[in-house]
């Protein structure tokens, strides 16, 4: 289960994009192109800052990192990036 959680989160985000419901992720992606992207980018920036603060304070680093990863995945789904492109890039860098 742990090995597949990123792929499962990604699939849910894609579903929320393609079949919107009344949820945070659907609503943020339903906004017109510029506003939706701006809101997601604001969250990525906010979460990145919170990861830095968590690391410096030695507290909540895992929690804040998951928030940052989640919003990065949300951005990638919003931009229509295939999850396999991410895994392929990791694999390419591993060589």
Automatic annotation (TrEMBL):
Catalytic activity, EC: 3.6.1.31
Q: Which Gene3D superfamilies match?
A: MazG-like
Q: Where in the cell is it found?
A: Cytoplasm
- InterPro entries registered for this protein in UniProt: HisE (IPR008179), PRib-ATP_PPHydrolase-like (IPR021130)
Biological processes annotated in GO: L-histidine biosynthetic process
| Keyword tRNA processing in record | no
A Pfam family cross-referenced in the UniProt record is PRA-PH
State any single GO MF term: phosphoribosyl-ATP diphosphatase activity
Q: Which domain of life is it from?
A: Archaea
Q: Does the keyword Hydrolase apply?
A: yes
Gene Ontology CC, one term: cytoplasm
Q: What class of enzyme is it?
A: hydrolase
- NCBIfam families of this UniProt entry? histidine_hisI (TIGR03188)
The record's comment on protein family reads: Belongs to the PRA-PH family.
Q: What is this protein called?
A: Phosphoribosyl-ATP pyrophosphatase
């Amino acid at each position: 289960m742990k090995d597949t959680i990123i792929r499962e989160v990604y699939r849910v985000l894609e579903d929320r994009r393609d079949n919107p419901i009344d949820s945070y992720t659907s609503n943020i992606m339903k906004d017109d192109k510029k506003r939706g992207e701006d809101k997601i980018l604001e969250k990525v920036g906010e979460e990145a800052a919170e990861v830095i603060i968590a690391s410096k304070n030695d507290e909540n680093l895992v929690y804040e990192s998951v928030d940052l990863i989640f919003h990065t995945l949300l951005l990638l789904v919003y931009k229509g990036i295939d999850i396999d492109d991410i895994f392929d890039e990791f694999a390419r860098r591993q060589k």
